[in-house]
Amino acid sequence: MNIKIEDAKRKWRGMKATRGFHDAVLFLCFVAVSSLFWLILSLNDNVTETFDVKVKIENVPDTVTFINDIPAIINVTVKDRGSNLLRSGMLNNPHVNFNFRDFSEGGIFFVKKQELSSALKSAFGNTAQITASSADSLYSHYTTGKGKRVPIVVISDITCAPGSISQIPEPENKSVLIYSDVEITDTITRVYTQKIVKRNLSKTEVVDVKLSPVANVKIVPSSVKVTIPVEPLVKKESMVTIRVEGGTKGEDLLLFPAKVKVEYYTPMSLYSSDLVPIELSVDFNDIHRTKGGKLPIKAKILSDYVESARVMLDSVEYTVVRQ
Q1: Which of 110, 220, 249, 300 is a good FRET partner for 269, with 20 to 30 A between their CA atoms?
Q2: pTM of the predicted protein model
């Protein structure tokens, strides 16, 4: 190991003694000096740069809620000497502060154009020129009232892959708080998500979705996580009793058979349920409209979570019973 170190030192001393090494060092020194002169000259020239200026509203009471968001950042284009911009724009993290009490009255917070321009100019120094700004004033309604809690309604358009089914999408938060004038919040009973569109789903998904904005209303939070439950369909068979609809007083029907088997596909989570999501019936008045001593069976699906339902008989025999 020591032999390798001594060998490396010997090569380094040999390289330093060469003319090429001295020329390279001299060239690098010239480059460094030239760069320094170029930097000094550049900092004395007028340049234009764009900066992100932070906006802070101070002394806001805890009871105040802004209805319209005040921008946290303003993009400002500034012209000044390079040295001034380096100091004020790059090294000092430019920002502007406004005292809430100085710019608020009657539910409105308002920083006028001249006041904002003056604050931005102060952030960069008296010699700076503000040539462009993403905001020419700051304006927002605010309220000191308590929020009103209203439920969330999920709007969706969802289809599943064959053999799967989706149940009702569920928001993580069932409700949100809304803030505005009492005259407005009294008219709002619910808020809606933006429409969720999903196609060919084969498994449960969780999505972040924004709530649809309401004019002059602050919604907290403004978005919500929504779970779209997706599960496989399984085949199930049930015996369903046939109901008799209509009829006249003193007359009834005996049906043969009184129960009929139905087949359908249902979500796996509902397979063990005792509730049968299909209703079967016959119309007493059909005895006057049909021939052959049989009545047609009518099927009614009672659930959105049933697919491919099939009744194993299309009609039943009957006997009229008079009481």
Answers
A1: 300
A2: 0.68
